[in-house]
């Protein structure tokens, strides 16, 4: 019989399960983390758990927080487990499980409660995983979207905010009035220049109602950039059953993830930070080159395999990577068109990183799915693919494969795979994308006219011609023949 996970059960768990090697009662919170999803619990929470196990930084425990309905459900599940999480690393050489204890509380999912926790002088970092689409970025200008309804609502009532950025601002205002130094805002989301984007969203929201306070935030609050990486599939009954059967633990919200983790972080923490360098976090002056490497090779690689694999009927990522056509397409696109846009990083081998990424994608234990990779294309394409196309055009480099990736996304948005099966909606802009994708079958420019996604890039003639050529072939000859044509170009 599996043992329900909680603090008292830790001593009775199987010996092959790693449990907290420290007194959790002796921990105190130094971080409020907003967005306690799978990635956070597989990444930052594990780094801190390992650090606490070394007897280090026990005043930097995590206090969870959230702003969405799903956060409340997560809070209730974790509360029943004394805030413990089972993290299973899906290593093909053998699965391993760790119960992390680095989170010690979780604020009620209520703005006032979260603000109260953030104003505690012991809190010196507020960290975020609110998804790459959660920063109110205008897709056309790539600037702050001041017209978003949630932003307009917060700007009208900044002392009663609903968004995470409004909550952060009100907490900072109260700390300022109390003479408490401002916390560092550390985003762990997967978007280019994430700290810079987080700063812009926070400051510009403040500027809508209080320009003087906005200037104070801009001049006094640190927003370090970071690069984070660990493939973490969604939790389903499959993972819950595996944790129960393999490790004897009943966990309502376990996390399964690959054994690879990476965290590169700018060292800008005026109020201090945990000693994360002791558990493998790399602190650098400028994270941008590492971030770009990951966004283009890993995230761009995910996008590259997602849509042809979905159209050809693959469900799991490892099955797609076992298809020689898909694996060869990924390798060719990255070597020919993605990696050449990257400036060298001293001490970093892009080819070694690419091979590591391909191995990670092919890991059968992860069970990552193609539908997950296809999610939210209208937010992901402008971050992971379109900037590469812009750089390639500026550098007078080929873009045929990148245009093919966009054409594959367009073909996917048309709503059926090659066998005629319906593709369920998985994008907030699904209806508009489907309409434009179907029109693009006859007029490819129709899809690129979506300025919310493509901005001015949709008007670039070289891109339009390459996209049109690839899309016509996809509809006329199918995915396999189109990929084969690209691969044969050598």
Name the overall outline.
globular
Average pLDDT, all residues? 96
Helix content: 40-55%
Please give the order of strands in the largest beta sheet. 7-4-3-8-9
Largest sheet: 5 strands, parallel
Please, how many domains?
2
- The structure class reads alpha/beta
Unreliable segments of 5+ consecutive residues: none
N-to-C span: 56 Å
CATH class membership of the largest domain: Alpha Beta
Tell me the radius of gyration.
23 Å
Query: What is the name of the CATH topology of the largest domain?
Result: Rossmann fold
Based on the structure given, which CATH architecture of the largest domain is correct? 3-Layer(aba) Sandwich
User: Total strand count, please?
Assistant: 14
Q: Kindly report the oligomeric state of this protein.
A: single chain
Q: Helix segment count?
A: 22
The percentage of residues in β strands lies in: 5-15%
CATH superfamily of the largest domain: NAD(P)-binding Rossmann-like Domain
Pfam families: Mannitol_dh, Mannitol_dh_C
Domain Mannitol dehydrogenase C-terminal: 286-474
InterPro entries: 6-PGluconate_DH-like_C_sf, 6PGD_dom2, Mannitol_DH, Mannitol_DH/Oxidoreductase, Mannitol_DH_C, Mannitol_DH_N, NAD(P)-bd_dom_sf
Domain Mannitol dehydrogenase N-terminal: 30-278
List the helices and strands and how they pair.
Elements lengths: L2 E2 L12 E2 L10 E6 L3 H5 L1 H10 L7 E5 L3 H11 L5 E5 L6 E5 L2 E4 L4 H8 L6 E4 L20 H8 L7 H15 L5 E4 L6 H14 L3 H10 L5 E4 L7 H11 L1 E2 L4 E3 L4 E5 L15 E3 L3 H24 L5 H5 L2 H15 L11 H12 L8 H5 L2 H8 L1 H9 L5 H14 L16 H11 L4 H4 L2 H4 L6 H17 L1 H10 L2
Parallel strand pairs: 1-11, 2-6, 3-4, 3-8, 4-7, 5-12, 8-9, 13-14
Antiparallel strand pairs: 5-6, 10-13
Helix pairs in contact: 4-6, 6-7, 7-8, 10-12, 10-13, 10-15, 10-17, 12-22, 17-18, 17-21, 21-22
Organism: Pseudoroseicyclus aestuarii
GO molecular function, one term: oxidoreductase activity, acting on the CH-OH group of donors, NAD or NADP as acceptor
InterPro entries: 6-PGluconate_DH-like_C_sf (IPR008927), 6PGD_dom2 (IPR013328), Mannitol_DH (IPR000669), Mannitol_DH/Oxidoreductase (IPR050988), Mannitol_DH_C (IPR013118), Mannitol_DH_N (IPR013131), NAD(P)-bd_dom_sf (IPR036291)
